[in-house]
Amino acid sequence: MHLVAIGGSDAGISAALRARELDPTADVTVVVADAYPNFSICGIPYYVSGEVTHWRNLAHRTYADLEATGMALRTDTLATAIDVPGHRLHLRGQGGTADTLAYDALIVGTGARPAVPPIAGLADPGDPLDPVQPGTGLGPADGVHLLHSMGDTFAVMHSIDTLAPTSAIIVGAGYIGLEMAEGLTARGIAVTQVELADQVLPTVDPELGALVAEELAAHGVDVLTRSTVTAVAISPAGSPARLRVEGHTAGPDGARAPLTRFADLVLVVTGVRPDTRLATAAGATLGTKGAIVVDGHMRTGLPDVYAAGDCVVTHHRLIGPTWLPLGTTAHKQGRVAGENALGGDRTFAGSLGTQVVKIFDAVAARTGLRDHEAVAAGYHPATSQTVADDHKAYYPGAQPLALRITGDTGTGRLLGAQIIGRRGSEVAKRIDTYATALFHGMTVDAVSDLDLAYTPPLGAPWDAVQAATQTWTRTHQPTPAAVPPEGHRQRGSRSASTDSRASRR
Description:
Elements: E1 2-6, H1 10-22, E2 27-31, H2 44-49, H3 63-68, E3 72-74, E4 78-83, E5 88-92, E6 98-102, E7 105-108, E8 112-114, E9 144-146, H4 150-163, E10 167-171, H5 175-186, E11 190-194, H6 206-218, E12 222-224, E13 227-234, E14 243-250, E15 256-263, E16 265-268, E17 272-274, H7 277-282, E18 305-307, E19 314-316, E20 320-322, H8 327-341, E21 355-359, E22 362-368, H9 371-376, E23 381-389, E24 400-408, E25 414-422, H10 427-439, H11 464-476
Parallel strand pairs: 1-2, 1-7, 2-3, 7-18, 9-16, 10-11, 10-16, 11-12
Antiparallel strand pairs: 4-5, 5-6, 8-17, 13-14, 14-15, 19-20, 21-22, 22-25, 23-24, 24-25
Helix pairs in contact: 1-8
């Protein structure tokens, strides 16, 4: 049995590890496009900030650790085509050397690649599968960067070391953009954050996004929302910085005002898209957001070809098929693919989109659905907001948590939760509690029955998790007669959201 995994990040490595764990006699090869298998891309901002002191510390496992499991690693090797009938993978090594690799089962874990906005003057990063070289434009040598790989990371660090920037513009205010704002600020670089949406961190409700914006401003980050960058260029002589960024900002009435800013460093982090070029050429079916369609066993429909991670459609436990690029999901899917490629019968249990991010001293998290997402999925949602302390107020250091709960008004089912609080307030632990409740289909009211830990320095007899669900229940608890059979999904117009606050305990 020869199992081949394409991709040395979360999905590919997890698949290989699982296969070797189940069958130590299996011949497992992982094809890695660069020289950095099993590196934590999520940790890049903390290497840039200096909190992670050496780039090698970003490795989940060293090269030697991976080889010790019995897998073979082919680094600096690009998979260029899949011969599905012949069960062979075409490769291109360093120097352009062509090769092929036979497989009995193949796992595609090609992940995602940066979504590059249409910014005039920004260099096309190119396609390694296309021999045509990218066109001209500003890139890393000029202090203009995308950020998705270890190679991108080294380029950013080189710019910091050689250009000694005092100012930076970050295009995008999602998770990586916000973490990089903190990382660059920690290096003494003045940051301007430009975001197309009405708020920073658009994956949470505006009420919580506003709190994140306050945290950024408190640490000197200049935040520009409803702003579009249309061009980047080398600044003319006499300008305040090396690079000029142009675009426009939309006012509340939609009117556009021109935007011109200068900086020594420009970082474009506007999200990612699934990298499905290899699978598409092989005949795989694509679905939501252009990701590869897989079943619960991570099978693509091509004979003996599986796929996992950021390149595939994800099963969401509340809404069904979606695309949700998360490292935690990729690890789980890779493990399922690795087991089934050996003849197993494991099913991916699904995702809830549970996420958490630290922005300076604030922590924001979410799981499940927001109100508008629940409406689109056919639920009958309402959302309430609560402010509760992270622990008993009489014990020093109590900090407020802002919690938003979304539930179905017809069934009482918990649909989602969002939290923002201070670092040290156990935001991640609390969002995980909600994620567990969601995973098991609990009602909002049933969260009060959970036996949660309590001691005054760390919580309250009714934890903030339960204070928030009790606020929702008081306002939206359905009558017993209105509760349909378990698992029934109601459709209809949305119940009006409320904004409630619990007294600090």
